[in-house]
Write a structure and sequence with these properties.
4 helices, about 75% helix, Transposase
């Protein structure tokens, strides 16, 4: 489900939300709930690690 929400989020300015939700088979309320949910600690940590890895890679 998250993958569908991510695609909708990425394309939000190009197509109407209601159409993309219908095409994806998800509810608008589910999408908005996902979009407005605070980022999890795991996701925050993954972003931090990705930045650290990128930094090490660029310095090598």
């Amino acid at each position: 489900m998250t993958e569908r929400y991510e695609v909708i989020n990425r394309e939000e300015g190009h197509y109407p939300i209601s159409s993309m939700c219908r095409w994806s088979g998800v509810s608008k309320s589910g999408y908005y709930s996902w979009r407005d949910r605070p980022q999890s600690q795991t996701a925050i940590r993954r972003e931090e690690l990705a930045m650290m890895i990128k930094d090490v890679f660029e310095r090598s």
